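Box S1 | Example of a co-folding query
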Amino acid sequence: MTTSNIINKIKPSATLALSSKVKQMKSEGVDVIGFGAGEPDFDTPEEIKASAIESLKSGFTKYTPTSGILELKEAICEKLSKENNINYSPQQILASCGAKQVIFNCLQALCNDGDEVLIPSPYWLSYPEQVTFARGKSVFIESSDENDFKITRNDIERNITDRTKVLIINSPSNPTGSLYTEKELFEIVQPAINAGLYIISDEIYEKIIYDGEKHVSPASFGQEFLEKLITVNGFSKAFSMTGWRIGYAAGPVDIIKAATLVQDHSTSGPNSFTQKAAVTAIQGDGKATRDMVKEFDKRRKYIVERLNNIDGITCMLPKGAFYVFPNISGLYNRDICGQRVTNSLDLANLILDKAKTAFVPGICFGSDLHLRISYATSMENIKEGMDRFEKLLNTGIAHEG
Ligand SMILES: *Cc1c(COP(=O)(O)O)cnc(C)c1O
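Box S1 (continued) | Returned holo structure for pyridoxal-5'-phosphate
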């Protein structure tokens, strides 16, 4: 092997791989229903597209400053102040090609060899790989369905060592949809702050929340929090802009400067006209987002009910994001279509083969007792997918086609 030691440790993104497999099956004429999507199934709102077109026409097609145009950084500061109750200045903002890139840059800026990064599990699958790229060490903090996949103060305290440098939190969570209340969040953030850790708060699902619950940014807890918090957000999920590649971090000046250096020599600034479109998105009335969340909410309730009606499955009603994360361990060791499965990967493969329905195995996110099902797909697809899944489990009849 001639590739580097670091690259040899990196796993490909299982969700991106599943999406390509589903696309491949579809192109071969297989009638497959995909529940792997990590992106809204809605189009980007028209006024956002119009803004990008206008800036293209006006010739706004050159490099921008690495950390983003001032207009965007000011709009982000205004948003963070108004919606999240955090006061930042433009020099504390780094705009990148997505929240994914900005987290990568921050981890590069923060980690020394062997520094430990606390990651509540189940987790978004890019976190541990990004920690590996940064020569850090992921330390997973387990949670389970019993406590809605939330960790506690005690969990944080138990896992801090003299090598711990960073805590990553993601509320609402991908893959579980779990949302911390203000009090719960304070309880886990405070011991991390006391221990001098930096905290990366990935708030990409902040606007996709149900049941009148509210999102809280831990950077708003006070000055000592603000000094250690890196608030990460983006446009992909809230504005259906996954392909535009724009996200940002807000944090302490020195960390933002360091993360900007990483960007200086890797990608340079984000796409110019995407930045203009992002300003339009951030300054809009948010109606498209609210309409999308209403639709997600209907699907959420429906899919959770269908799943809980299946013998052997239990599924929490998530408070945010667009995923459900059912516990399927009750299906292990049963006879399904003549096969016995004992783990999430084999189960997901069996369902894909026999029911032509694509779920993501929980093991990709750190739990082998679960599947991740995205409901960012039409109600019609959800109904059909649940019918096929149920039929496979109840009667062992495979879906032909
Ligand atoms: C989708 C997602 C991201 C990345 O979003 P981009 O802005 O498209 O890079 C980051 N974190 C989580 C938890 C996500 O689900």
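The radius of gyration is 21 Å. The chain has a mean pLDDT of 95.
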